[in-house]
Design goal:
Order of helices and strands of chain B: HHHEEHHHEHEEEEEHEHEEHEH
Helix content of chain B: 25-40%
Number of strands of chain B: 12
Distance between the termini of chain B: 61 Å
CATH topology of the largest domain in chain B: SH3 type barrels
Strand order of the largest sheet of chain B: 7-6-5-4-8
Largest interface: A-B, 114 and 115 residues
Number of domains of chain B: 4
Shape of chain A: elongated
Shape of chain B: elongated
Strand content of chain B: 15-25%
Distance between the termini of chain A: 68 Å
CATH class of the largest domain in chain A: Alpha Beta
Number of helices of chain B: 11
Structural class of chain A: alpha+beta
CATH architecture of the largest domain in chain B: Roll
CATH architecture of the largest domain in chain A: 2-Layer Sandwich
Structural class of chain B: alpha+beta
Number of domains of chain A: 4
Order of helices and strands of chain A: HHHEEHHHHEHEEEEEEHEEHEH
CATH class of the largest domain in chain B: Mainly Beta
Oligomer: heterodimer
Number of strands of chain A: 12
Largest sheet of chain B: 5 strands, antiparallel
Helix content of chain A: 25-40%
Strand content of chain A: 25-35%
Chain lengths: ~325, ~325
């Protein structure tokens, strides 16, 4: 909220904030409002020029920030913030309803969730309740592994996992110290320190084939960094190989399903897709699955590998057709 | 927005909130600094624009038409302006903090943090850090999302170009939006398709180009009893009615073995596996992806579909 177009809404929140937090520090208020101290003081100077009609000193809002402590007075007219807008209330209500669909929250004692929903609906206009029932985020059923993962998190224990990796079509055993549970776009993930990879990893819980809580305290390295999922759960590394595919209309799902680097329309529904591949096996599987609805264009060595594997597979079928 | 204009608008809000009786445009012009220097027409235009800007940020300006007066009067009613008194218990604040960090993209993330800021300004103790060991994220990456959110909110008909699954053709659709739903990381629009004259669901990732709002707001009525989630259906979980027999190389095909109903050790380094399925093409895609580690033996239609794919990959 630092743009000039947002300034009026910000001032209409700033004044009530200062009224309800008398003696607040400049630095602390600047942080709450996402401003530099200089911007905040500029806001305070603007507020100080405003007030009731008449604009005698007795009508104007009185603000001081001596010694970094902000004191505001004579601003009773705008002492309360503006009520929540439809978008503001709906953004929270849709998210709260999504939480409501999750088993973890059905168990929260004292029904905090429905209480918050009721309070917010009251704080917003009528429109917000209607919109928020028309926008919904489905959450997958809790994976079987979740209770044990949460148990390990609560008791700070290490987990022994058997984890399915579809790209390699393998189940791998791993020991993991869990650090967080995340629900991203309706799917449940566990973040943890993986002793096999010696790194922080995300595990999709519906791909956990087996899980046991070990009688070993979890002890992830102190300098292990949490994984940033703000740009999506799967972020290809820029060092992964760039692969180019051409798909027909029936193969366009690839561009919807995987994160892609670039997509070019070739006409008649055909697409050229550039994507970064974590490993060659994954590309091979994708190309075989696509069959005549798509092919690898580059790199050539990858295209050759696809042809070789298709030939080997067809040999299986040839001797019995 | 210039500093002078921000000042004028803030003074206008204070003036309209403070007044007990509605003020005429002329009275407002006298009372609010910044209006006083301009000619009549310039003032009228400026005042119109200012009212619109205040309404856009959600400030309710009442227009009162008194039969005894020529000019309408304006004021802001405190009750509809002010955030009602709210208090949150600690557990409620924690849940709200969790909800506020769900959205990943600009429009809704800003709306959520704006709401939280208003609540804090109103003296409500919120918990911006959220809930510690649990985190929730929803991405609205589809470019069509913001326009459809607006259309659902404003109950407005939309028009967009859409390519059906696997189709070469792009068609323009005119839709009364009933709702948007996220399922398994994908967003869908549910609504009434005016061209097909029937309820339909659309995947946002298949919308091409801009979503245009058509006609006036407030037109769309969601029929009672419509469940937008149900309209999206569960296309990814059909009933498994048929059984396929496969030969799987030992040590390979882990994912397939996890789902197999019967596994028999066979000779020569191969196992025989039985697997339920419904759509032979879907099954064939999966089996083809495993290349020379799996041979689909039966039924013949699924076997042919695998062979066709492998030949396609060879070409």
């Amino acid at each position: 909220m630092s743009g000039s177009a947002d300034r009026l809404p910000r001032l209409l929140a700033l004044v009530p904030y200062l009224m309800s937090h008398p003696g607040a520090q400049v630095g602390e208020v600047a942080e709450v409002f996402g401003l530099s101290e200089k911007q905040l003081i500029d806001d305070l100077q603007l507020v100080w020029m405003c007030g009731l009609p008449g604009h005698t000193p007795g009508d104007l809002i009185d603000v001081s920030w001596d010694g970094g402590e902000i004191v505001i007075d004579n601003a009773d007219t705008i002492a309360r913030p503006l009520r929540l807008g439809i978008d503001e209330a709906s953004a929270l209500l849709v998210a709260l309803r999504m939480l409501g669909a999750m088993p973890e929250f059905a168990e929260v004692p004292g029904d905090a969730l429905p209480r918050v929903v009721a309070k917010l609906e009251r704080a917003a206009g009528e429109g917000a309740a209607a919109v928020s029932s028309q926008v919904a985020v489905d959450v997958d059923a809790a994976p079987d592994a979740l209770p044990r993962v949460r148990d390990a998190l609560n008791r700070k224990r290490r987990l022994s996992l058997r984890y399915y990796v579809p790209g390699r079509d393998e189940v791998t055993p791993r020991e993991v110290d869990p650090t967080r549970v995340m629900v991203v776009d309706g799917r449940t993930y566990m973040e943890g320190w993986c002793y096999r990879a010696e790194a922080m990893r995300l595990f999709r819980l519906d791909r956990v084939v087996g899980v046991d809580v070990l009688d070993v305290p979890a002890d992830p390295p102190a300098d292990a960094e949490p994984i940033d999922v703000t740009q999506g759960v799967f972020r290809p590394s820029p060092t992964d190989e760039l692969v180019e595919l051409e798909v027909s209309a029936a193969g366009r799902w690839v561009a919807e399903y995987y994160p892609v680097e670039g997509v070019t329309e070739l006409g008649e529904g055909r697409l050229r897709i550039a994507l970064r591949a974590r490993d060659e096996d994954w590309v091979l599987k994708l190309a075989l699955r696509l069959g005549d609805t798509g092919r690898v264009v580059a790199p050539e060595a990858m295209a050759e590998r696809v042809r070789e594997e298709a030939e080997r597979a067809l040999a299986l079928y040839a001797h019995r057709s | 927005m210039s500093r002078r204009k921000t000042e004028r608008l803030l003074n206008l809000v204070i003036c309209l909130l403070a007044t007990r009786r509605p003020l005429s445009a002329e009275q407002i012009r006298q009372a609010v600094p910044g209006y006083d220097r301009d000619g009549d027409e310039a003032f009228q235009r400026m005042f119109e624009r200012d009212k619109n800007e205040l309404r856009e940020i959600g400030i309710p300006i009442d227009v009162v038409r008194d039969p005894w007066e020529d000019e309408p009067g304006y004021r802001i009613e405190r009750q509809s302006y002010e955030l009602p008194e709210i208090t949150l218990e600690a557990d409620e604040a924690a849940v709200l903090g969790l909800a506020a960090q769900v959205w990943q993209r600009a429009s809704l993330a800003e709306a959520a943090s704006g709401a939280l800021l208003k609540l804090r300004a109103g003296g409500v103790a919120t918990d911006p850090a959220g809930g510690g060991a649990l985190e929730l994220r929803v991405d609205t990456r589809d470019p069509a999302f913001p326009a459809l959110w607006d259309a659902v909110r404003d109950r407005r008909v939309v028009r967009f170009d859409y390519r059906s699954a696997g189709s070469e053709n792009v068609r323009t659709r005119t839709v009364e939006p009933w709702g948007v739903v996220s399922r398994r990381g994908r967003w869908y629009l549910a609504g009434f398709d005016r061209d097909r004259d029937a309820p339909r669901a659309f995947r946002l990732s298949r919308i091409i180009g801009q979503v245009a709002a058509v006609g006036r707001p407030g037109v769309v009525e969601v029929p009672p009893g419509v469940d937008v989630r149900e309209m999206i259906g569960f296309p990814e979980e059909p009933m498994e009615e048929r059984v396929a027999t496969l030969r799987v190389r030992q040590g390979a095909g882990e994912g397939l073995r996890q789902l197999a109903s019967v596994t028999r050790a066979g000779g020569g380094g191969w196992d025989e596996v039985e697997l339920g399925f419904s759509d032979p093409e879907r099954l064939a895609g999966w089996i083809a992806s495993m290349g020379s580690d799996v041979e689909l033996l039966d039924p013949p239609d699924a076997r042919e579909a695998v062979i066709r794919r492998l030949k396609g990959a060879l070409a």
